[in-house]
Amino acid sequence: MNKISLKFGLWFLGAMLILEMSLFFFLHTSIVDSRIEEELAALQARGNSHRDVLEDSYKEETFHHIAVMEAKADTEVIITDQNQNIIITSSKFDNEEQKIITKEIGKVPRDGEIMENRWKSEKYISTITPFKINQNQKGYVYMFRSTDQIQSLISRLNHHFITGAIMILTLIIITILFLSKALTKPLIRMKLATEKLSKGDFSVNLPDMGDDELGELSRSIKILAEDLKHLKEERNEFLASISHELRTPLTYIKGYADVSRRKDIDETIRDQYLSIIFEETKKLSDMMKDLFDLAKLDKNTFVIDRMEVELCSFLNSICEKMLPAFTEKGMELAVECKKNVNVLIDPMRFEQVIFNLLDNAIKYSEPHAKTSISVKRDKGMVLLIIKDEGRGIPKGDLPYIFDRFYRVDKSRSRDTGGSGLGLSIVKELLEAHEGTIEIKSEQGKGTAFFISLKELP
Ligand SMILES: Nc1ncnc2c1ncn2[C@@H]1O[C@H](COP(=O)(O)OP(=O)(O)OP(=O)(O)O)[C@@H](O)[C@H]1O
Ligand SMILES: [Mg+2]
User: Fold this and answer.
1) Which of 27, 124, 277, 444 is the S-S candidate for 144 at Cβ 3.0 to 4.6 Å?
2) SS3 assignment for 110-151
3) Closest CA relative to residue 384, chosen from 422, 435, 421
């Protein structure tokens, strides 16, 4: 038997025992009490009927008649005069009876009273009935009944009670065994299931346990198992793509470094190779930083330090910084924002968002294309639109564009070689700002990103 059902069983057994014992005790005492009362009443009634006979015909013959009658019954009679001197007894009387008939008595009611009722300790229970002849007190009828009989009656009763108690107890124990099994079995199954989970086996197979708390618990465990399974798969996928991503630049670095080592190589070509190695290393370290950021965002350890910022001047200062990169490629960048728009953002993180989007606009546009940033307000929200005239994104790729490592150009050629992390960082950063991002794009025409944020009043 397992611990929980043992605990449950013992508690239940304890409660049942207390209940059963108090019930039996109450029943036993009330049966015994009423039994003794009955006996005493019967004894008194018998004494009263002897009195009636005596009062009807007060003569010696009657005394004998009563004595003979009692000698044949379970009861005994002693008739005394009014000074408690014995006139006649139905059998040999003993010390115990003597004690009772010499007890001092006051005025006894006509229907008699009880002289002795302590059936446990005394040899007899007894009653007394007075009788009168011609209105004068003449004597007393003492009735006795041996307590031996009562005691054997009670012991028979006890015997019944004990057999009953044992039977009920056995029944209770059997019920507890079944009940605790039925109650604890699902719990134990769930315990085993979670143990399996913790060992990394997510194939949890729990039966439907109904609508109660146990059923809810089992459903939660199943959901947990599915989530864990999903997480594990996602992690494996993620690790696979990371290793894939790292391999590409590393292959370049290894290859170019190997060629550069050769003595017979031209200095200018060696310089060219070294700068490729430098670029690839830079790319790698950027990617490492991005991955680290994403990991922090996932774990929610990424602290967003928000403050009130005027969006237009904030955007203008970023664009000023980015402008050289645009002009270098012969592109244009315009900011359209004049109003006083206040938002609650982390300036450093939000700069990262804008930077990633503008970086994409440069990377995925041809020279002379225009890029614009505009700000609109709508019902307490601020809408930030970043629009380019670049190559656009095919419709089929749009749903995945915010996924980690997702790139439209799967070839990962060196010149367009981003890692595909930029947009996933943008999305997570915006979610941390309680903002949203949406994308509209047409292949060959351009792309627009719509960021919406809450405006500060
Ligand atoms: N403005 C854009 N125009 C056209 N295609 C885009 C644009 N922005 C993103 N994309 C496509 O979406 C893909 C994912 O963009 P994302 O910024 O996440 O990665 P990346 O630019 O390739 O690499 P990283 O930003 O990590 O250096 C890009 O590879 C590109 O194919
Ligand atoms: Mg990018």
Assistant:
1) 124
2) CCCEEEECCCCCCCEEEEEEEEEECCEEEEEEEEEEEHHHHH
3) 435
Helix (H, G, I), strand (E, B) or coil at 453: strand
pLDDT of the residue at 326? 92
Spans of the chain, pLDDT less than 70 = 1-2, 299-302, 412-417
Q: How far is residue 234's CA from residue 354's CA, in Å, rounded to a whole number?
A: 28
User: Residue type at 451?
Assistant: I
| Rounded Cα gap, residues 389 and 66, in angstroms | 134
CA pair distance 360, 388, nearest whole angstrom:
9
pLDDT number for residue 243: 79
Q: E-assigned strands of 256-329? A: 307-310
Domains and CATH numbers, the chain: 3-153 (3.30.450), 213-296 (1.10.287.130), 303-454 (3.30.565.10)
Which protein residues touch ligand 1 with a CB less than 6 Å away?
A: 356, 360-361, 363-364, 388, 390-393, 401, 406-409, 418-423, 447
Whether the CB-CB separation of 139 and 55 falls below 8 Å is answered with no
Q: 420 CA to middle of ligand 1, Å? A: 6
Q: Which ligand is the nearest neighbour of the Cα of 402?
A: 1
pLDDT at site 125: 93
Which residue matches tokens 């270098």?
328
| Bridge partners, 114 (sequence order) | 127
Spatial contact of 342 and 308, defined as CB atoms under 8 Å apart:
yes
